[in-house]
UniProtKB/TrEMBL annotation:
This is Iron complex transport system permease protein. It is a multi-pass membrane protein. Coiled coil: none annotated. Pfam families: FecCD. Keywords: Cell membrane, Membrane, Transmembrane, Transmembrane helix, Transport. It is found in: Cell membrane. The keyword Metal-binding does not apply. It comes from Oceanimonas baumannii. GO terms for molecular function: transmembrane transporter activity.
Length: 355
């Protein structure tokens, strides 16, 4: 009896040590991603038509004695764009990882569920037909409000249909794919009848641009990201249990239906706000969560911050690439994320097959 107690105690102590080692390794990975994200952020501030060294960038951020031209370029032009890349990248990735979690499908993301296509259609309604829910005096928020409203309506359609009896998570993803084609067709119909000026505006908006945001819009994005992340963090254990399957999660006391509703609606809120302000940016919400999952596993206490950091790092690096691929010209960020995201996604697929 005493011998078995000693053996059990030894095994318990060994298990505790293994868990602490795993947690420390995950924390080191998070620290490494944070450092890489910081490097990309500084590079985003330094790169442009006027190039600066890292030391000049850091000096301009803290020292008021630097030349006025440098302060204007960094504080008024580049800093809002660089911060937007971090916040939008983190938001899309957090939305993507929770949609993949609650739907149990690795292809779930704001892009594949039709939210981005719905937002594009909402923006086109305002640009081409002049249909907006806000008065003309609120011109800075009229198009984003349209995009947000239509995107959230698409999310509500997905949720309402997911409540029908016999609807599986695979069917929800197929429904999202149907919405993508539906809103794309409606958007193309609007483009067909649009005058040249409005057509150019819609096409440019669909390509995505981080430079559209100003400080008030950046504040809105940041507050919503903070709020949703805190809600998800409080439910980290429940979301982790959900990956074991509905039956096991229910046996552990998780309200699966309510948790799935929370994940879909809050993830849709994050994605809709981002797309409404910066346009369509694909693959971040799909690829970044998979990278984070490969690095730290399924434990949401580590997966949630890792996903946010991977998304922020990925979009910040894409922002740097957009300003360096073509000399003297900045490519739309949506084009860069797609060009980078497609090969990365292929690599992830091949790696998962080997595993």
């Amino acid at each position: 009896m005493t011998e078995s107690v000693i053996t059990g105690s030894a095994m318990s102590g060994r298990g505790r040590r293994l868990y602490l080692e795993l947690a420390q390794r995950r924390l080191r990975i998070l620290a490494g991603i944070s450092l890489l994200t910081l490097v990309c952020f500084v590079a985003d501030l330094a790169v442009g038509q006027a190039r600066y060294t890292s030391a000049e960038v850091l000096s301009a951020l803290w020292d008021p004695a630097v030349p006025l031209a440098v302060q204007v370029i960094l504080w008024d032009i580049r800093l809002p764009v660089a911060l937007t890349a971090l916040v939008v990248g983190a938001s899309l990735s957090v939305a993507g990882v929770q949609m993949q979690t609650v739907l149990g499908n690795p292809l779930a993301s704001p892009f594949t569920l039709g939210l981005s296509a719905a937002a594009s259609f909402g923006a086109a309604l305002g640009m081409i037909l002049g249909v907006t829910i806000l008065p003309a005096s609120a011109v800075a928020f009229a198009i984003p409000a349209n995009a947000f409203l239509v995107s959230m309506l698409a999310a509500l359609v997905i949720y309402r249909l997911s409540q029908k009896r016999g609807i599986t998570t695979e069917m929800i993803v197929l429904l999202g794919t149907t919405l993508v084609f539906t809103f794309t067709a409606l958007l193309e119909a609007l483009q067909y009848v649009a005058p040249n000026q409005a057509l150019s505006a819609v096409v440019f908006w669909m390509m995505g641009s981080l430079s559209r945001t100003d400080w008030p819009q950046l504040a809105i994005l940041s507050v919503i990201l903070l709020f949703v992340s805190l809600v998800f963090a409080r439910q980290a254990w429940a979301f982790t249990a959900l990956r074991l399957g509905d039956a096991r999660a229910t046996s552990l006391g998780v309200a699966v239906g309510r948790l799935r509703l929370q994940g879909i609606l809050l993830g849709s809120l994050l994605a809709s706000v981002c797309v409404s302000f910066v346009g369509t940016i694909g693959f971040v919400g799909l690829v970044a969560p998979h990278i984070a999952r490969m690095l730290v596993g399924e434990d949401q206490r580590f997966l949630l911050p890792a996903s946010a950091l991977c998304g922020a790092c990925m979009l910040s690096a894409a922002s740097v690439l957009s300003k360096t691929l073509v000399e003297g010209q900045a490519l739309p960020i949506g084009i860069v994320t797609s060009l980078v995201g497609v090969p990365m996604f292929f690599v992830l697929i091949l790696r998962s097959r080997k595993l």
